[in-house]
Design brief:
alpha/beta, Rossmann fold, about 210 residues, 7-stranded mixed beta sheet, single chain, binds S-adenosylmethionine, 6 helices
Length: about 210
């Protein structure tokens, strides 16, 4: 059982209404959750915006540490009609056995975890050999002024964004976790205007446990 976490009541409400079901995320959720079969783990499920997209036959366990996000996710799980188990847990310490899942789904999560290296090590541990992480994340620019701006605003961004970091290098973190990237698509779905230009580019992909 996870130690109680304070959570972000107002961020959860704002995120649920303003971000979780943004139009650009619909096709992403359909692609990532819709293609997840077998024993599926979703980490940092937030308010449960992926739930309605899982195939009905998938056996889904969704984790989320924030109690306010989790309360909304419970409601969405009921509404989705899917058989879903919800567990309060951080991605850095997953309460599951080694190699117990076929697929892990993560959307907009590794920007927010405290220790992304440890979280990805846990994802690798709970996936079976050949299992896949299906992800969609916003990441640091490869370089240039916008990357430096992301680094500069990271502390204040994180304070306002419930721990979100705009400048994570996910590709490097995946490699360090021993995951093999088999698909990676970059996009810039948000407008090139401040402040949202700092929460892009995005990467959608699949990484496998060798
Ligand atoms: C931007 S929201 C994304 C929520 C959801 N995945 C989605 O696609 O809408 C980031 C989520 O990561 C969760 N989170 C923060 N720290 C975490 C951690 N250490 N482990 C797992 N999830 C975490 C937050 O509580 C929040 O629900």
């Amino acid at each position: 059982m996870m130690a109680p976490r304070r959570g972000h009541k107002w961020f959860a409400a704002w995120y649920d209404r303003m971000c979780a079901r943004a139009a650009y995320l619909g096709p992403v959720r359909r692609e990532l959750a819709g293609g997840a079969t077998g024993r599926v783990l979703e980490v940092g499920c937030g308010t449960g915006a992926n739930f309605e997209y899982y195939p009905p036959e998938a056996q889904v366990v969704a984790t989320e540490p924030d109690p306010y996000m989790l309360a909304r996710a419970r409601r969405r799980a009921r509404e989705s009609g899917r058989r879903l188990a919800l567990v309060q847990a951080v991605a850095e310490n997953l309460p599951f056995s080694d190699a117990s899942f076929d697929v892990v789904v993560a959307t907009l999560v590794f920007c927010s975890v405290d220790d992304p290296g440890r979280a990805l090590a846990e994802v690798t541990r709970v996936l079976r050999p050949g299992g896949e992480l299906r992800f969609f994340e916003h990441v640091r620019y490869d370089g240039g002024l916008l990357a430096l701006a992301q680094d500069a605003v990271a502390p204040i961004w994180s304070w306002f964004g419930a721990g979100c970091h705009p400048n994570r290098d996910l590709t490097r973190l995946l490699a360090e976790a021993g995951l093999e990237v088999v698909r990676l698509e970059r996009s810039k779905p948000l407008p090139p205007l401040p402040p949202m230009c700092l929460a892009r580019p995005h990467v959608l992909g699949v990484a496998r446990v060798p």
